[in-house]
Q: What sequence folds into this?
C-alpha cells in the first residue's frame, strides 16, 4: 500500500489537479493621473444642532466660541463678554513662554497641558473682576470645550502652519 503525502491545503485533491500555473501573463489595463489639491484637511464633526456640515460663513473667532458655548451649554454669554475674551486672547498670545511651546519638537499633549495651565491662570483673573463669567467658563464641560476650541486654533496656526 502506497501512502500519499499529506497536503496542507484546504482545497480538495481534484481541484488542485485541475489548476495549472505553468505560465501567466501580466497585462496593463488602465492608467490615470490623480492630481492632489492643497487645501485645509480640517474635519467637521457633529455640531450641537445635529448637522455634520462644514459651516458656510466664516465667523469671527471669538463670536464662534461664544456661539458654540451658548448653544451647547446654554451659558448666555453676551457680546460684552467678548471684551474679556479679547483681553484673554491678547494675554495668551503675548505669553512668550506659552507660545514657545507651540512647535513641532513638543508633543501635542505637552503643548495642550501648558496651554490649559495658562488658560486656567487667565480665568483666575476673572475672580475679582468678572466672577459670573469665571463661574460659567470654569464649569467642567464648558471649560474643556472652551480650551479645546482655542487650543486647536493656535495649534493649527503655529504647529501645522494652517491659516483659517
A:
Amino acid at each position: 500500500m502506497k501512502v500519499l503525502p499529506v497536503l496542507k491545503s484546504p482545497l480538495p485533491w481534484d481541484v488542485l489537479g485541475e489548476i495549472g500555473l505553468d505560465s501567466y501573463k501580466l497585462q496593463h489595463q488602465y492608467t490615470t493621473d490623480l492630481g492632489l489639491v492643497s487645501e485645509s484637511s480640517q474635519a467637521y464633526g457633529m455640531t450641537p444642532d445635529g448637522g455634520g456640515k462644514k459651516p458656510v460663513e466664516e465667523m469671527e473667532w471669538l463670536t464662534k466660541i461664544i456661539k458654540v458655548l451658548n448653544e451647547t451649554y446654554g451659558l448666555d454669554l453676551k457680546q460684552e463678554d467678548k471684551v474679556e475674551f479679547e483681553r484673554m486672547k491678547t494675554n495668551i498670545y503675548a505669553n512668550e513662554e506659552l507660545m514657545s511651546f507651540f512647535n513641532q519638537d513638543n508633543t501635542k499633549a505637552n503643548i495642550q497641558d501648558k496651554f490649559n495651565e495658562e488658560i486656567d491662570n487667565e480665568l483666575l483673573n476673572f475672580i475679582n473682576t468678572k466672577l459670573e463669567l469665571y463661574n460659567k467658563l470654569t464649569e467642567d464641560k464648558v471649560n474643556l470645550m472652551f480650551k479645546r476650541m482655542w487650543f486647536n486654533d493656535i495649534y493649527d496656526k503655529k504647529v501645522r502652519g494652517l491659516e483659517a
